[in-house]
Hints:
disordered N terminus; 6 strands; 2 domains; 7 helices; two-stranded antiparallel sheet
Amino acid sequence: MLAALSRDIDISCLVLAADNKEISMKLTDDELRKLRNAFNVQKKTQANRKPDRNGNAIRLTMFFEEWLNVWIDSGKIALRGSGRGKFCMSRKNDLGDYAIGNVEIKSCEENSREAKQGRMVSQCTRNKMSASRAGCAKDKEHKAKLSETHRSLPQVKCPHCGTKGRKGGAMTRHHFDRCKSVAPHPA
């Protein structure tokens, strides 16, 4: 049964093609079966995946042996999974297929953060987020920290209208390049 599962993989010692080095790693029949099942699930779900940001389908073009070598090379095979503190296989810049040279092992938090980076949120979603925070009172300690942080900001002066205030916030929103005394507010 194990020979059918492992094909060309010698369980006692795996040779990494990238570095031509040997890593002695013993995988039990059960561990190897679980890894192959995880690979197969990733392979089967590729049809249900959303396209990448360029509209191309995302495919898994690696064989099981290559996929396993990527995980073993990372040293994080025991920490595979989803959620906080776990690691996942991600594509570089979230583009292209899951292929040798285009994948890296990252923490799930980092992968999720990168996926959300630069994403535009619709006005409807912004309204929902705002409504969910409405009525949440801040405690005195939190207000004190906010006040202290605001007071630590340097004083700035708008070169166009001469208004003085703390850097950031309303000064950035209504003055400098967006000052009403210079030009109409950009949309």
